[in-house]
């Protein structure tokens, strides 16, 4: 009887830990209205820092193409995974 309770308790603890880890690695919900795109180039400030462009310049390298346009022309598959419409109608990419 005692051995069965210990096994069930261990299983429950493992499932709880797995659920917590799964939430942090896979299940975080993103509130797209809180994502900041200071220069309006379709790349979030966080994404621009990650890829090395200036979050305050629409066109970091001055070639007349927005940073977002350049990034998503190089990585077109990322656009569908990372871009969303905000409640104000503007597109934001994370």
Write the layout of secondary structure elements.
Elements: H1 2-26, H2 45-51, H3 67-74, H4 76-82, E1 83-85, E2 91-93
Antiparallel strand pairs: 1-2
Helix pairs in contact: 3-4
If you had to describe this structure to a student in words, what would you say it looks like?
By secondary structure, the protein is mainly α. It folds into two domains: 30 residues; 63 residues, no CATH class. The chain has four helices and two strands, in the order ααααββ. A hairpin with a 5-residue loop joins β1 and β2. α3 crosses α4.
Nutshell version of this structure?
With 94 residues, the protein is mainly α. Helices cover 50% and strands 6% of the residues.
Keywords for this structure?
94 residues; mainly alpha; two-stranded antiparallel sheet; 6% strand
